[in-house]
């Protein structure tokens, strides 16, 4: 039997992909997002050796900041830390000695390009309060219901208010949203951002964590004394493994488990699919939007399409338009031109057609098309909010799961990713202690 030069080289590369170590790490962590980094930092603080394997060529996962395109930090993914008084992710800011920036509360409402009259602002607030009351009453009568069964819009203002519950808040349509999962979330206020961008902060926070980039996991085998992690860059073994990849990636099945995941966990993955929430960022050649810096604008276009936006972020001649749910999915399928056209039209209805000729730069996220995310965050389908706890259970004693999808309180948020990473590290430490 002969060995071709190409095969020889590929074997050689596979053998040297992971540097030789005196000992294998105590724990291998799959995924270098907030959950994986939080788990790694917790284990390192307990004097355990770790290695994070990450399929991307960067750390941060769904928290990433573009600091070059516009001259100001544009968070492509996670941007805010909500409920800042109790959010576990505030620990990141404290550890990095970063001052939180309070989110502006000022909000303008537009219907078909016209600002809502003063009395409609008061009614909009009442609609939001009544919506919460209706959902609480519905959950008293049943364990769970689709939000869309409870909140049925009767006019444009209600459609906009309910869009801020569904696609523009949760990233899904109301009929797909579990009322129980939505209502278990803590209050949003106070909501914070960070001056450098949340993704940039996460990258700095995780910089000292040992990470192997560009390494896609193929298989996790916990049937032997050590857990074997097979990647495209070779293989590793460890006493325990923490898996932090999104449910969309787990559902797509890019890597397998031995023994196989149980039926209950596979069902949990299926019932916690990925929501979709995208951003369309635009900058203009000169000032064309007459509004205070950082103003929040929500509205319905003349075509009855809901949108959310921040205009003049960082006091720049720019805007960021947010879309979610089915509209975000449709715009992804139609391409970047369609997304850009929607954002420009929505803004032009309010600030005039002049801005169409002043577009200087743009950036459009497509989280549904990202193979390492397949969406923006997990959502629980109606009747399946408890599946988060099922997903969080250990597999075969030494394989642990983390990520925002596994947190029963802070799911969909950076706080859920952080808290789940700390929780999985604690579970791994218990196993390491026994050994």
What does this structure look like?
By secondary structure, the chain is of the alpha/beta class. It folds into two domains: 5-57 and 197-273 and 375-434, FAD/NAD(P)-binding domain, CATH 3.50.50; 106-188 and 277-369, Alpha-Beta Complex (Polyamine Oxidase, Chain A, domain 2). The chain has 14 helices and 22 strands. The chain is globular, with a radius of gyration of 23 Å. The two termini are 43 Å apart. Residues 1-16 have low confidence and may be disordered.
Which class do the helix and strand fractions yield? alpha/beta
> Sheet bearing the most strands, described?
7 strands, mixed
Number of domains: 2
Radius of gyration (CA) equals 23 Å
In CATH's first tier, which class of the largest domain applies? Alpha Beta
Which superfamily, in CATH terms, is the homologous superfamily of the largest domain?
FAD/NAD(P)-binding domain
Q: Would you give the CATH topology of the largest domain?
A: FAD/NAD(P)-binding domain
| Portion in strands | 15-25%
Look at the structure and give the mean pLDDT. Answer: 93
Work out the helix count: 14
The poorly predicted ranges are 1-16
- Overall 3D form: globular
Helicity, as a percent range: 25-40%
Can you count the beta strands? 22
The first-to-last residue Cα distance is 43 Å
Strand order of the largest sheet: 7-6-17-18-19-16-20
Query: What is the CATH architecture term of the largest domain?
Result: 3-Layer(bba) Sandwich
SSE map:
Blueprint: H1 5-16, E1 27-30, H2 34-45, E2 50-54, E3 65-66, E4 74-75, H3 90-95, E5 101-102, E6 107-111, E7 114-115, H4 118-141, H5 147-150, H6 156-163, H7 179-183, E8 192-193, H8 198-205, E9 211-213, E10 217-221, E11 227-231, E12 234-238, E13 240-243, H9 247-252, E14 256-258, H10 263-270, E15 274-275, E16 277-284, E17 295-300, E18 306-311, E19 318-324, H11 325-334, H12 336-351, E20 359-364, E21 377-378, H13 387-391, E22 399-401, H14 414-434
Helix pairs in contact: 2-14, 4-6, 11-12
